[in-house]
Amino acid sequence: MSPESVTAYGMATSGNCHKVRLLLEQLGRRFDWIEVDSANGATRTPEYLAKNPNGKVPMLERTDGGILVESNAILCWLADGTAFLPADAWQRAQALSWLFFEQYSHEPYIAVARFIRGWTAPDSPRRADLPRLIERGGQALAVMEKHLQGARWFTGPEYGVADIALFAYTHCADDGGFDLSVYPRITDWLARVRATPGFVPMPVVSDDVAARLAFSQA
Question: Where are the beta strands (DSSP E) in 36-158?
Answer without folding.
Answer: 59-61, 67-69
